[in-house]
Specification:
The two termini are 22 Å apart. The chain has one helix and four strands. The chain has one domain (16-78). The protein has one helix spanning 3-10, and strands at residues 20-22, 28-41, 52-54, 66-73.
């Protein structure tokens, strides 16, 4: 999803609607940060992996990193 697609969807909701992210194991958390990062699509992702990996966490070569933004919740760093 791009910023434009997210904005289009958010515009259809009442302005007071909470926007949440998944909690650490169950439930949902408030958003606490938008973090810009460079990512690449992780072609060999397992079921438990995300579809993208941060450039600074990847040691391989040949993948072109693209700018992205991560929406982070209060306990997302515990995942």
């Amino acid at each position: 999803m791009t910023v434009e697609e997210l904005m289009d969807q958010l515009k259809t909701l009442p302005p007071e609607t909470p926007v949440l992210v998944e909690g650490y194991e169950t439930g949902y958390d408030d958003i606490v940060e938008l973090r810009p990062l460079k990512v690449f699509r992780y072609c060999n992702a397992q079921e438990w992996d995300g579809e993208y990996q941060a450039k600074n966490e990847y040691s391989g070569q040949g993948s072109k990193a693209v700018p992205a933004v991560a929406i982070l919740g209060r306990r997302g760093h515990l995942r």
